[in-house]
Specification:
single chain; 198 residues; alpha/beta; Rossmann fold; 7 helices; 5 strands
């Protein structure tokens, strides 16, 4: 009998993928961050950048090596990466985005930039999209919804680290266009709070 719970289906998919031969091999050696040449002329050398996300940020099919590790190796970026595959923006579950945001990034650290992956998992785990709050509301967001969690990430990063915040989006095979709708809502939120988005 097929499990109808989107989160359980996603977890089953991740577990099946982890047992695959391709996953077990990971990237070939030539694509390892250890194989790239350091560029001492990069304007990013020495910049401190925090990364919060899920599988893409983690490097799920590459044994934990992602673009974050390439930025460190090639451009000398001082990275702090908190990424767990399959996790969501919405909710306060242990290991979720909001939990890790407040545990994995010491509040006494200074960052030149904070980068957050727009999760592709919220919809799959049945999280509600929610609504953006009024322009003048700066706290008390409904973090059980994806948009409320985005607003909380914005609030926390701005008040705690006082650095620029960028959300990045992912390619998504989404016949119902729910992720595309989320991207549009993120753009609207970005205009309201002055976020950078790509």
């Amino acid at each position: 009998m097929e499990n109808k719970n989107p989160g359980a289906r996603m977890q089953a998919f991740l577990e099946k993928m982890m047992r695959s031969t391709a996953f077990q091999k990971g990237n070939v050696a030539q694509y390892s961050p250890n194989a790239v040449a350091f560029n001492p002329q990069s304007p990013l050398v020495g910049k401190r950048v925090a990364f919060l996300g899920s599988s893409v940020t983690y490097g799920f099919a590459a044994k934990g090596k992602s673009f974050v590790d390439y930025l460190a190796a090639r451009d000398g970026v001082k990275t702090v990466k908190s990424a767990i595959s399959g996790t969501t923006l919405a909710g306060l579950e242990p290991g979720g985005y909001l939990d890790r945001l407040k545990k994995d990034f010491p509040t006494d650290q200074q960052y030149d930039l904070f980068v957050c992956q727009l999760s592709t998992n919220d919809n799959r785990h049945g999280k509600q999209l929610g609504q953006l709050t009024a322009d003048d509301q700066r706290d008390g967001f409904n973090v059980e919804t994806t948009l409320g969690a985005i607003e909380e990430v914005c609030r926390y990063v701005q008040t705690t680290f006082n650095c620029p915040l960028v959300f990045y989006t992912c390619l998504q095979n989404d016949p119902e266009h729910k992720y595309a709708d989320l991207v549009q809502k993120l753009k609207k939120a970005a205009e309201e709070v002055g976020l950078l988005h790509h």
